Amino acid sequence: MKKILITLIVTTQSVFLFSQDKKHKYYDNDSNNNLYEISESQYLSLKNDLSYPLIYENDSIKVSILSKINITSKLNESTLDYFKINYSLDKNNFTVINYIDNDPRKVSKSYQVPWSIFEGDFIKEMNKIEKISHFWVINPNVTNLYYYHGNKINWQKDTDNYIQKNFLFFEGFNGGYIILDPKGNFYLHRGEYSKEDFLKQLKELKRKSFKS
After folding, report:
1. Any bridge partners for residue 70, and if so which?
2. What was the pLDDT predicted at 174?
3. DSSP 163
4. How would residue 46 be classed by pLDDT, with cut points 50, 70 and 90?
């Protein structure tokens, strides 16, 4: 399989911009967000509940990417320093970031998303499992904060889209969450999730201490 970077997809789109036949390319995505070009048959065989199918398309090309939903890894030194500065990374406890990446589709100005993590005392429920430092973080381009219960939640803007660029990496996930331990090990979930699923994962990480 040929290893490429996401930027090459944009280049490919430009190359075929005036082509009469629409091209369809397929890619797999590893835990470091590297892309590997694969065949259609490989794409179909690898497609499962652990990968999020992302599709980008214009008049000349269609790109299908199987992106990993869950990633367990460790922050490099520069990223670790970033979190220490911007999120006061706790030396003794887990740090949790719940992230929103985009505005909703057209909805009433008075409508709020009925999402389970906004019900009850989410932070209290987390702290019953493990003492944590928590941050609600949102893409700075999002304008409808009320939809995400902005009247109750103090959303912190993702400065320079750092989390979006370095963790979500692709557009289309809507959001996700990151759980970090004091040593810089992290668990990343990209895409939608329920409060029940999140709390279950937090319990599992506490039990395993990020060790696989």
Report:
1. 189
2. 84
3. H
4. confident
Separation between Cα atoms, residue 34 and residue 73, nearest integer Å: 14
3-state secondary structure 99-141: EECCCCCCCCCCCCCCCHHHCCCHHHHHHHHCCEEEEEEECCC
Q: Based on the number of CB atoms within 10 Å of its own CB, is 94 exposed (0-12), middle (13-18) or buried (19 or more)?
A: buried
Residue with tokens 């999002």: 142
Cα distance between residue 125 and residue 24, in whole Å = 45
Check pLDDT > 90 for residue 193: yes
Locate tokens 């932070």: which residue?
Answer: 123
- Let me know the angle formed at the C-alpha of 85 by 82 and 90, rounded to the nearest 5 degrees: 100
Residue at token pair 């030194």:
77
Q: Check: CB of residue 172 under 8 Å from CB of residue 164.
A: no
Other C-beta atoms closer than 10 Å to the C-beta of 28 total 19
CB-based contact 79:95 (threshold 8 Å): no
Sign for the pseudo-dihedral over CA of 101, 102, 103, 105: negative
